[in-house]
Records
---
Amino acid sequence: MTQQVERMLPLYEAKMLSAYDHRDADVVKSATAAKRQNQPRYLTDQEHLDPQREAIPNVWIREELVDSELPEWLTGFSDVTSSTNERTIISAALPRAGVGHTYPLYFASAPHLLLAQWNSFVVDFMARQKVAGLHLTYTYLRQLPLLPPSRFEGPCPWTVLESLRDWFAQRVVVLSCTSESMKPMAMEIRGVSQVNPWDPALRISLMAELDAALFQLFGVTRDDLDYIMESFPIVKRKDVAAHGTFRTKDMILEVYDAMQVAIDTGTPYRSALQEELA
């Protein structure tokens, strides 16, 4: 015990985060596991609706041990992976806190644009051609072709009414800033300190939009998009079991087609986000 009050921060582990979600799971002690006793206990949608609810770690650390020069929000990715997993790259933004070695951080001039690319199927597909072991190291990441920040300057090809950077930023913020702790990210990127309500259906739609947009920007044809999506058998199997169809691929193709029509005709693409705000 100390004579003064100390503020403790969570020590994030990879099992606590998923794509665009820094509070995917608490870490709990398994009463039955002989090995790997620390297991994730996934938060429900109802728990996600509470903007005060954060993922509870196994370990807490003193705030003074976290570098005060770090940004108020961070971005990282899960180190433990495999090219045969459901997804190879899983990335999220998180508040400034302690972060374990299983969740390496990355720093960039526009980390939210990298975040969108890491979580996309098109970049994940390219990563699967590289990753040979069980760890997604920086060496692998540096081999991946990515769109530079300059590519996001200028008007959005399928809306024209806004910049491509703003189009991506709005969606990444809605997906990432769902608790009070992520207000600094929303303020830095969008200039608004707000919490976005947790909406599972909207999240699925926005991720499909981001995927379709990146397929467009990487110049992937519709047939190749179909082929790439079929190379994710676990995603397909889960979708078919839950919905009777490969819903993820179908949604991305639908958005991709709508964006192409918008590009060809000049009629702005209408986003799921616009429908939500209408």
---
Amino acid sequence: MAPDTRFATARTATARTATARTEMTGTEMTGVRMTGTDRISFPAGDRARIARLLDDRPAGRDMASRLDWVSAKLLGTPYLANTLIGGPEVPEALVIRLDGVDCYTFIDLARALALARDTADFIPVLKQTRYRDAQVQFDHRRHFLTDWVAFAPRNARDITATLSPHARHIRKRLNLRADGGHYIPGLPVRSRDVTFLPPQAVTPEVLDGIRTGDVIGIYTALDGLDVTHTGLAIRKRDETGREDVYFRNASSLKANRKVVDTRLVDYVRNKPGIVVLRMTGISSPGR
């Protein structure tokens, strides 16, 4: 399988800033309104669809089952890059849209849809998922997957090292390119320890330890990045009745260009490795 070509998890600010600038009219951005102190872009059609999904979501299920159910409703959603608005020179907006997702907005939406108590609760949950301290600001956006673990409120815990004694650890300087430049202008370089499993370590025993709803990051050896692609682990039975772990992801590959399920072992076979996070709940006051 050819590699996913987009550095999806390091949300490239240059492209997003250029996109945002094309949506500026005077000092306001089209499709963006103020809600309290936050700019938000949430089309009426997508608002109605979010409400239907939350109304239809089966009650009383555990987190994994809810993640499976809501993410399955996004299967087939077109892949669409550069949907977020914000940059060093462009005000950040909370963008919510279901007409297209990238690999990162897909897991953002899935987590918020699984955790929100109702429609009114969806926006606060998405804010906490996408932004550290739930502050809708470009420099607070979780641009790297490991930001989910590093910054409060934490979206997940890193379980990679618990799955295998063959986990590897490396110190990364996130956002710093090998040539000395930055992947995302306006953001600092952060030193961070990244743990990953090389593909040969993704054994049947490791797969047994991965649950439905775990976040899978495709590790990269490139300087300055932790992963280059993300998705959800989904345990389900194939046509023969055998249970297997699938990688549900918003794929930018030419053959897909949509949210698809792929057997995890097939996807990672020629990749540098995987990072595995287990989602946590909301930990803010009042929840």
---
Amino acid sequence: MPKVKLGRDPAEERAKTIRSVINAKRGERDIQSQKDLAEMAGINRTTLSAKMRNGTWTLADLTRLDRVLRFDVDDLRQIVRGSR
């Protein structure tokens, strides 16, 4: 019998939304990899990878990313609300 997920995990949904916003902006800015993004933003590569997975971003992290990715108002709205 297949497993059925009865409840949704808001933390996972929020992490997924933030991850998709960051990856979309990375593509728009022609940044090839997370490694390149980490170097440009001044964030440790393993730290960036972990935060992309679990969504535990701080304001300082997002500020560093904003310097590189230049989020617009809609992107910030999605990051703060955690929904599309």
